[in-house]
Amino acid sequence: MKKTDFQYYIGGAFQLGIGFGVVSLLSRWVTGNTILSSPETLIKYGLTGGIGYSLMGALALILFGILAKKIRDRFHDQQTIGDVLRKRLTPPGYWFMIFILLVISFHSIFVQAMGAGILLHMIFPLPVFSGMVFFLLFCFFIGGAGGMQRIHQLAGINVVLIFSAVIIIPVYFYIQEGVYPVYEGIKLYHPYILYVKNTEAILFIFTAILIGFGQVIIDRASWQRVFIIKKEKLRITFTLAGLIWATIPLALSSLIMIIIFGRSYDSIYSLLFELIGKINSTLLIVLFVLFCFSAISSAISAELHAVVTLIIKNIVGMLRPLSNKEKWGFTYLFSGAMCLLLLIIVSILPPSPIELLFFFGNTYASMIVPMLYIILGSKTLPALIPLASIIGTAGGFAALPIMENLLTIWISFSLSSLICLGYFIYNLLRTKLTVKV
After folding, report:
1. How would DSSP label each residue in 271-305?
2. Transmembrane stretches, by residue range (predicted)?
């Protein structure tokens, strides 16, 4: 395959084995959400919540890995989630689903960019605009213009930096402070963190797993990796990626306990960045900054690449045939426009903490059963199936005034599931009646 071929941009030059497949998935899923949500989860739900957050990502990737083999068997000639939707849905349903994916995609990139703005604002004494210009330019050249091959070239470096930080920095502090003083300090100032019989934490764990699986099952970048990882290695690759990912939030939680033991705190979101004030080693400060930069830039680059591919291949390419040169031209145009829009939005909005973990959680939960129906079904599906996710999302948001946030996510999941189940029963009965007649 020539480097000038647009297929090279979509999938890279070769199929991935287990090792590089795991690296590629970790590079995608260790994100700003992971960095910023881990402190929030630990503080709100204690150690049980921290462990639950780790289970969320691990189980989500493992469960999707089980589906991945089925996806490759049934849709072996496809390259993106959009290709599969085009094959399984009617035209109205296809365009409706593509619209949903675009909204979710932009939200995902926006959350990552906002996380980058928060990180840059807290770490460097620079205006948000200046830092974001360099940051988004880097993401543009890697994910937007560089394509899958460029992403793969940096994935290994990103993962090495991430694991170096989450292993070396906690070991450094625990050697300095000792494990027992940290435990005693947490027990004295924040005993709720050690309380393991928290019923709210149990609800949080199951809800987080639901959201995590919904997020992975519609993630454009993860679907692309399904088609570029060797088919016989898919399940083990996703399983290993999930198990390894689970260690990241646990390591970040241990860092939070190091920071807050023996004292109180002002802001949940700024806790990780108070770490810089405690690090005496310049090398470890640089390592921590590189860890934050690598995690968020790799996630944005992967998402940017996936969205641009979706737009060119499954939207513009459906409206009219495109030459190879036109596809490359649209690649620069769309990725550049998205980076510019993100720069404007993040610069205008103050870099204040935002709710990252359950923002759009209702939508992710309501997408699970429709996507399972699309993957596992055998017939062309009507627009009702993707519409079920919108009805479920709306129902969940409508219940917010009378229910807590976690329960409304289950409302969204249940409504969407009931609609899909109703259509399945109706279709089954209609088929039986037709056979009898």
Report:
1. TGGGHHHH---HHHHHHHHHHHHHHHHHHHHHHHH
2. 7-30, 50-68, 94-113, 119-142, 154-175, 201-218, 238-262, 282-308, 329-350, 356-376, 383-403, 409-429
- Domain limit, last residue, from 333, 359, 385: 359
313 in the same domain as 328: yes
Same domain for 180 and 93? Answer: yes
pLDDT in tens, 182-196: 777 777 777 777 777
Let me know whether 380 and 333 are in one domain.
no
CB of 4 within 8 A of CB of 147? Answer: no
Measured between alpha carbons, how far is 200 from 198 in angstroms, rounded to an integer? 5
d(CA 309, CA 293): 24
Q: Is residue 1 part of a domain?
A: no
Give 82-106 pLDDT, tens digit per residue: 999 999 999 999 999 999 898 888 8
Q: Percentages helix, strand, coil for the chain, rounded to the nearest 5?
A: 80, 0, 20
Residue 237: band (very low, low, confident or very high) from pLDDT cuts 50, 70, 90: very high
3-state SS string over 354-385? CCCCCCCHHHHHHCHHHHHHHHHCCCCECCHH
Query: Looking at the structure, do residues 371 and 293 belong to the same domain, yes or no?
Result: no
Residues 409, 396 contacting (CB under 8 angstroms): yes
SS3 of 89, please? strand
The answer to the question of residue 48 being in a domain is yes
Q: Looking at the structure, do residues 60 and 85 belong to the same domain, yes or no?
A: yes
Q: What pTM did the predictor assign?
A: 0.88
Q: Which of 359, 388, 422 is the last residue of a domain?
A: 359
What are the CA-CA distances from residue 1 to residues 147, 214, 244, 310 (Å)?
14, 34, 33, 21
Kindly calculate the radius of gyration of the chain based on its CA atoms and give it in whole angstroms: 22
- The crossing angle, in degrees rounded to 10, of helices 128-139 and 91-123 is 130
Domain ranges, residue 164 = 6-359
> Could you tell me if residue 241 is inside a domain?
yes
Do 310 and 318 form a contact (C-beta atoms < 8 A)?
no
Strand partners, 89: 381
Residue 387: per-residue pLDDT: 92
Query: Which tokens hold the place of 382?
Result: 């009507």
pLDDT at 208 over 60: yes
CA angle 138, 324, 298 (to 5 degrees): 20
